[in-house]
Amino acid sequence: MGSRILVVGAGAVGGYFGARMASAGHDVTFLVRERRRQQLRAEGLCVDFY
Predict the structure, then answer these.
(1) Each residue's pLDDT tens digit, 12-42
(2) Most buried of 33, 41, 47, 48 (most Cβ within 10 A)?
């Protein structure tokens, strides 16, 4: 297993890099505000890599 990583924010940039690190096997945690947390819990985070 990879490193434990904290990503501050899960917007366009934080979400992308956090998802890339998670797909590489790292344990990624996102630090977000309450409104964004509720949105992520309800909808999840989907990132496509081309």
Answers:
(1) 999 999 999 999 999 999 999 999 999 999 9
(2) 47
- CA distance between the termini of the chain: 24
Decide if 50 is inside a domain.
Answer: no
DSSP of 1-43? ---EEEEE--SHHHHHHHHHHHHTT-EEEEE--HHHHHHHHHH
**Inter-residue contact 11 to 21 (CB < 8 Å):** no
Domain count, the chain: 1
d(CA 23, CA 42): 21
Domain range spanning residue 22? 11-43
